[in-house]
Every structure is written in structure tokens, then in C-alpha cells.
Specification:
Helix 2 crosses helix 4 (71-82). Helix 18 (423-429) links the parallel strand 12 and strand 13 (433-435). The protein has 19 helices and 14 strands. By secondary structure, the protein is α/β, with parallel strands linked by helices. The protein is 42% helix and 14% strand. The chain starts with a helix and ends in a 6-residue tail after the last strand. The protein has an eight-stranded mixed β-sheet with strand order 3-2-1-4-5-6-7-8, sandwiched between helices. A six-stranded parallel β-sheet has the order 11-10-9-12-13-14, with helices on one face.
């Protein structure tokens, strides 16, 4: 599908005619190279805004390459940059230099007046000294421009930054709604829009973001400290639910109970709900692990013990090695020099990122026994190839059923449900399947000729 075709999906009420963009006098200045920054730039351009994105150009290029699986986002990025609705520039080494670009230009070129500064804090931390960029924005000639911040920091850190800024219109937007693999659509129609305001009831100054607020399924506005705490609490709760189910899955294994059926029953209780109740190898990515680390540091700074949080972190780390232990036990420890197939490598099905994925500890353990690994991971192939380009025991393949006859076992790390597994092809080899994601349906498990080991599920 072309970018032009996809762009027709943008509601007309939310998008200005691009023929008028060149006449616009205002720009949104975004500072950062994260996927959140890229997505925000594309969404703002889709809403008819002119966007200037400042970033480390090398890291930005790497980010765009790594998120190649975000096809919709990539196509729109290319279109908007070609049409110069998004313009990308190298990030100056100081915030003062960036601000001067617009304040000096305003005397002669009204097209460069800024209607929004948006700082993606995770991106600028390594470039700008905090005291320096705060001073630069405080010395700005224009203090009426809204300034937005996004990022994951220790609790109340962003609120403290907002209090040090002289301007009144300061905001904080956490990306709790962003879905890896569907970043553009999940921001254009956010599931939960949380906005922290330094000055209460001031969100009307964010006119360029009003369409997103209006289309959010749920919204909440509060002071920045409260929104920070809510963001962290939401993420920690999701991580806790996953870890609880993984702990229960071990008990289910010992009782010959299918944890998938238990999860379904739990979801029928409206007090519990069905989200994040799937047992598996745990959680990965950047957001949840980073959030837990920051929350841990926040509690330590206050000398508060959080044993539940510590347990969640411990369970998640241990769970990533559980499927290997099942493999080791199945072969009674005689696993040296075998060949295994691994399906999926990303931290979640549909993503191409492998950050904190179970595939990393699994590969390390397998290679320690000189086990040859045949890996099929359509979206994460590029990242895995870059990470392990010197590893002779790794072979990336382009078809999940390619070379099955060479393997003595199959591991499933991440697999989209709509990609139905071919049980007949698996049965041709009748090898054991170690399903770390619980990807197989019960009917598929029953149809296997070989043995099956899932997480809290037995054949």
C-alpha cells in the first residue's frame, strides 16, 4: 500500500490541505530520535502541522532502520520528509543554539515561528546538560510557547523540571498508548491519553494536539507529578499481572492444569479483566523494563522497600530461562552439539525489536553447549544479524519449515496468532516443541505427534 493511499485514512476533519502548508507561519519543533519522536512527527504532519525534528542523524537513521517493521509509519515518514512537511536537522550541541535559530529568524521570516517545543528526554540526556537546556529555555525571548516533555524518569523528576522552567505552559505526555508494531495508528487514536499540566486547565494551548485528545478512548488531565505516578503505576501493574500468571504457570505444570484455560476463566471476571494474563517467557522491550528500573530507583531514593516490585523483576528474569530448563530436563542433560530450530526473536509478536527478549538468554545458554541454532524471525532478522554477526552457531533462515529435518527440537519465542502453524509439517519430523509463548492452541497440541512443553501447559 502506498503512503498516499494510507494517508487517506486520516480523518479529513483532522488534516489540513497540504497545498496550504507552505503558507503556514508556525512549526512544531521536536527534539529527539526515539520511536516516540518519529511517531509524533508523522502524526503531527498528518494533522496538517509543519514539523522540524532535531536529532542525532546517525541514531535517527538507525532507529528508522530498526523499526522497518512499522510499514505504515515508514511510508508516511518518507512521504512527509520528501514533501518537507517534516524536516529533519542535526541536533545542535546546546539548546541555546537551537532556540536562536527561531528567535533570530522571527525578525525576518515569520514562517519559522514556533507553536510547540517537544522534548523527548531520553534522547537529549546524552547531548544536552540539564542545567544548560533549562537555562536556555528560561532565557528565551518567547515564554508563551507551550513546551511538552515525554520520557520515562524517576518519579517526580519531570515535575521538578517543569517547576524550574519559567514558562507557564509546560506539559508532560507519557506514551502509555503506543503499541509496538502499530505505532502510528495507536497514537492517532490513543487508548488512554494522560496529560500532565504545570498550570491546571491549560490544555487549550495545545491546539495542534486537540484531535488526538478528542479521539482518545479515555483521557485524564492532572498535575505532572500525578501523571508521572499514574504512568509508573500502570506499567508496574501490567508487569505484575504477567509475573503473577507466570508464577501460577509453574504450579499449573505440577498439577497438569492448562494455564491458558485458567487465564480465560479469570478474564471472564470483570473485576480481573483479560489483559496481560497470558503466561509465557515474561515481558521485554524497552518500556516495562525501563519503567521498573526507574521505579526501583525512586523507591531506593526514598529508602522504601518494595518487595512486590523486586519479586516481579526476579520472576521475569528467571522466567526467560525456564524454557531452556525444560529442554535440558527433557533430554536429561544430554544436549551438547545438537541442532535446534527457534521461531521468533522479538520481545513480542508483531515487533521487530529484540530488546529484553527471551531469545538472548536462550541463545547464550544453547551456544554454551555448542548447539547450532536455526532461527526464523521475519521481522527481527536484521537486528539479530547485526547483534550476532560473529556467531558461527547462528543461522538465520527465511522459512520456518526450512531445514526442519536438521533439528532435534523447536523453540517458539514469538509468533502471531494469525500465522497458523502447520502441524502436518511438524508431524513429519515428530520432534519436541518447546513453546515459550504458549502459541499453540489446545487442538493443535492434541494433534502433535511429538511431545509438547509449554508454560503451564502439558500435552
Amino acid at each position: 500500500m502506498s503512503a498516499e493511499t494510507m494517508d487517506k485514512n486520516i480523518p479529513q476533519s483532522e488534516s489540513n490541505s497540504f497545498s496550504d502548508l507552505a503558507k503556514k507561519s508556525a512549526v512544531c519543533v521536536l527534539i529527539g530520535h526515539s520511536i516516540e519522536a518519529v511517531t509524533s512527527a508523522v502524526v503531527l504532519a498528518s494533522l496538517g502541522q509543519q514539523v522540524h525534528l532535531y536529532a542525532d542523524q546517525e541514531i535517527l537513521a538507525q532507529q528508522l532502520h530498526q523499526y522497518g517493521f512499522e510499514h505504515h509509519l515508514q511510508a508516511l515518514w518518507q512521504m512527509y520528509t520528501q514533501q518537507q512537511h517534516i524536516m529533519s536537522f542535526a541536533l545542535p550541541d546546546t539548546a541555546d543554539k537551537l532556540i536562536q535559530l527561531y528567535e533570530v529568524a522571527n525578525d525576518n521570516d515569520e514562517r519559522k515561528s514556533v507553536i510547540l517545543y517537544w522534548l523527548f528526554l531520553d534522547s537529549i540526556d546524552s547531548v544536552w546538560v540539564e542545567d544548560d537546556w533549562l537555562t536556555a529555555f528560561n532565557h528565551s525571548q518567547q515564554q508563551t510557547q507551550p513546551l511538552m516533555m515525554s520520557g520515562i524518569k524517576q518519579l517526580c523528576t519531570i515535575d521538578a523540571l517543569s517547576q524550574r522552567l519559567k514558562r507557564a505552559w509546560v506539559y508532560y505526555l507519557p506514551f502509555v498508548f503506543l503499541k509496538d508494531g502499530d505505532a502510528y495508528s495507536s497514537m492517532l487514536n490513543p487508548s488512554l491519553w494522560l496529560l500532565g499540566e504545570k498550570t491546571s486547565n491549560s490544555r487549550h494551548h495545545l491546539g495542534m494536539l486537540q484531535p488526538l485528545m478528542q479521539h482518545a478512548r479515555a483521557t485524564h488531565y492532572a498535575n505532572i507529578a500525578t501523571i508521572e505516578f499514574a504512568r509508573s503505576s500502570i506499567m508496574a501493574m501490567l508487569a505484575t499481572r504477567v509475573s503473577f500468571m507466570n508464577e501460577m504457570s509453574r504450579l499449573a505444570d505440577s498439577q497438569q492444569v492448562d494455564i491458558q484455560q485458567v487465564s480465560h476463566i479469570m478474564g471472564l471476571d470483570e473485576r480481573v479483566g483479560s489483559s496481560y494474563l497470558q503466561a509465557g517467557w515474561g515481558f521485554g522491550g524497552n518500556t516495562l523494563p525501563t519503567e521498573l528500573l526507574q521505579l526501583q530507583q525512586s523507591s531506593q531514593a526514598q529508602s522504601l522497600a518494595m518487595p512486590l516490585l523486586q519479586s516481579v523483576i526476579h520472576i521475569n528474569e528467571d522466567q526467560k530461562e525456564l524454557i531452556f530448563r525444560k529442554f535440558w530436563q527433557y533430554f536429561d542433560g544430554f544436549i551438547d552439539n545438537k541442532t535446534v530450530m527457534i521461531w521468533g526473536g522479538s520481545y513480542k509478536a508483531g515487533s521487530g525489536r529484540t530488546a529484553e527478549s527471551a531469545i538472548h538468554p536462550l541463545l547464550a545458554l544453547l551456544w554454551s553447549y555448542n548447539i547450532r541454532t536455526l532461527v526464523y524471525s521475519d521481522k527481527a532478522q536484521t537486528e539479530l544479524a547485526a547483534l550476532y554477526k560473529q556467531q558461527s552457531l547462528l543461522e538465520l533462515i527465511n522459512n520456518p519449515y526450512q531445514q526442519l529435518d536438521e533439528a532435534q527440537a523447536i523453540f517458539i519465542i514469538s509468533w502471531l496468532p494469525e500465522n497458523r502453524l502447520d502441524i502436518a509439517k511438524l508431524n513429519e519430523q515428530a520432534m519436541p516443541v518447546f513453546d515459550a509463548q504458549n502459541a499453540l492452541l489446545r487442538t493443535q497440541i492434541d494433534g502433535l505427534v511429538g511431545d509438547y512443553m509449554g508454560i503451564g501447559r502439558a500435552k
